[in-house]
Amino acid sequence: MKLFAALLDLLFPPACAVCRGRLPEREQFLCTRCREKVLPAENCCLRCGYPLSGRMSCSRCLGYDYAFSGACAVFLYQGEIRKAVRRFKYGGQTGLARPFGELMAAQVRSCAWPACEAVVPVPLHPERLRERGYDQALLLARTVAKVLQLPVSSCLLRCENTASQTTLAAKARWNNVRGVFGLQPGVTVPGRVLLIDDLLTTGATAHYASETLLAGGAEAVYLAVLCRS
Ligand SMILES: [Zn+2]
Ligand SMILES: [Zn+2]
Hints:
Number of helices: 8
Low-confidence stretches: none
Number of domains: 2
Mean pLDDT: 91
Distance between the termini: 41 Å
Bound molecules: zinc ion
Radius of gyration: 18 Å
Strand content: 15-25%
Largest sheet: 4 strands, parallel
Shape: globular
CATH class of the largest domain: Alpha Beta
Helix content: 25-40%
CATH architecture of the largest domain: 3-Layer(aba) Sandwich
CATH topology of the largest domain: Rossmann fold
């Protein structure tokens, strides 16, 4: 088995998950250049995960009262990262769930959050799932859960199929996702939830997902995303 793995590495040397460049030794997922783009959790807004870059208060979440208690992101959604995320989300490259999920788990570990009881992915609507064939947030959640040794809970449902958030302006995004989430009947909502999504833009989706979880009995929701935009 070891020999087989070594042979595979020789034939297909592991490449950077983002730019597919060469990996330095002892690095599992990112080349040196892409590693530098990982957001330093200690210099990011505790509420929304956006980098503070020396400022005292956050320009991105000012005026928002999110239902989640904290958020962290691995990357800013731009350049090469954005292309890689799109390959993962729309291009069928589901193998990226492992490196991305592991980077998210590491980011969660570097936040001083109280221990969560379960990982909950922000769900896709079943119709969207049929179109795409896979649920990218669920794939990320599974890796995060495995690394952090937590169960994945499927207590959260998306009851309405909404227009994609990507084409909407900020205000419309809030209206678009209000009331779309529900709870799976008969599934207990965990006390402290680690909510997982691929992207955080206005925070509207994560806010309403968190609100639904809190209404269903969760004590607190912490949010981890792959990218912040
Ligand atoms: Zn790279
Ligand atoms: Zn913020």
